[in-house]
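Sharing in case it's useful to others searching the archive later.

Someone asked me privately for the predicted structure of Sulfatase, so I'm posting the question and my answer publicly. Question first, with the sequence:
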Amino acid sequence: MNGGKPHIFVVTCHDLGQHLGCYGVESVQSPNLDRLAVEGTRFDRAFCTAPQCSPSRASLATGRYAHNNGVMGLSHLGWDLYPEEKHAAARMAEHGYETHLFGLQHVTQNAHRLGFQYLHAQGTGHGGGTESSTARKVSVAVEEFLHGPQPQSPLYVEINFFEPHRPYDFGGVEADTSAGVWVPPYLPQIPEAREEMAALQGAIREVDHAIGCILDALDQADLSHRSLVIFNADHGLPMPRAKCTLYDPGISIAQIVRWPEGGVPAGRVVTEMVSNLDVLPTILEAARCPIPVEVQGISFLALLRNEPHRARKEIYAEKNFHSYYDPMRCIRTERFKYIRNFEVNFSIEVPGDIQQGPIFCSDPGRYTSQRQQLIELYDLSADPLEQDNLAGHPEVADIQWELDRRLWSWMEETQDPLLQGPIASPRYHMAMQGHLATRQAGNGIDVGP
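And my answer, the predicted structure tokens:
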């Protein structure tokens, strides 16, 4: 019925990083995503292009960096795809796919412009309390869809979960300590951290259960074998020194791919670096569609099939706006991380919802000192927690120079607007529109002394 093209299911969730059982976190209850990893291929070193929701998701959907697709901050604060940008849904629709969106989208303020022919279960997840979790609502909607008539066209289905975003108690979800609690080593090893991580584990268990329901529905509809299923987290954990930073805890993500009919091995772990920028070109190649020249990612389909492929030597990531303007760029190689900061700010940006958590509240001073360094250089083999900044050390001068050169070259090749000066926010543009409107309305109005 679908001309031999695979059905494509892209599943994402917020704020997960790699905090799953299949990534070695034994205290997390994630049997369904662990099952997906056993049945497919898990990427051990997958990274996002930005450590915040909207910019990362926009890169996943367009195969382009945030400073190229326009989403350099959160979409609900005014950032949006440039008018000429195409979302994956629009591209797949052009090639005969029937396109569906379940759950949230966070790359535009107008979901109808993305190219989805059908919009389902548009939950935002805000509210918390006793309402049903968005994960349950979304999974039920997907199950009902899959239990319906067999599709007459190949499907492109995007399923986006709000969980495990804060707060963690949607629908009365409780903290999970059933298998203990593991506190990542970049966080302080204190009771407050155990409390916060236990709540996160409960939310992860909830979204994993919802994903399990969807996987079961795919089996029951006899679609699993010929469906390309891609699971991606959008960025790192919602914890201090993770989300909103370019350290590995901020940009390392879970990525699992299953496609039995497409020759993707089961139970394989890929250790080569990939970027979420690479997902769209991989989907296009799997669907036997041309990859447009403006797509900046690299298809990893050959890597998935364990065939000769073009390996990434480095990944690039950026941050521009989240809670405030804090532009930075980084290059990560197999061994080194090089970060260039463009403004003086707090040493670590901790978003407002994370500031309300017990870890931050236990000692805000850990994160609110002024950032001193413009350049950061870390040897990831000797210093995986990225705590010993080697920038300026004579013994790594050649390495620092080379990484600096490659980072500037990437910025030039991608026409990074930072090269032209500070980036203005949507709020600034709104203010200037008000200024222009006032000027056009005329001068000389007497408003008194």
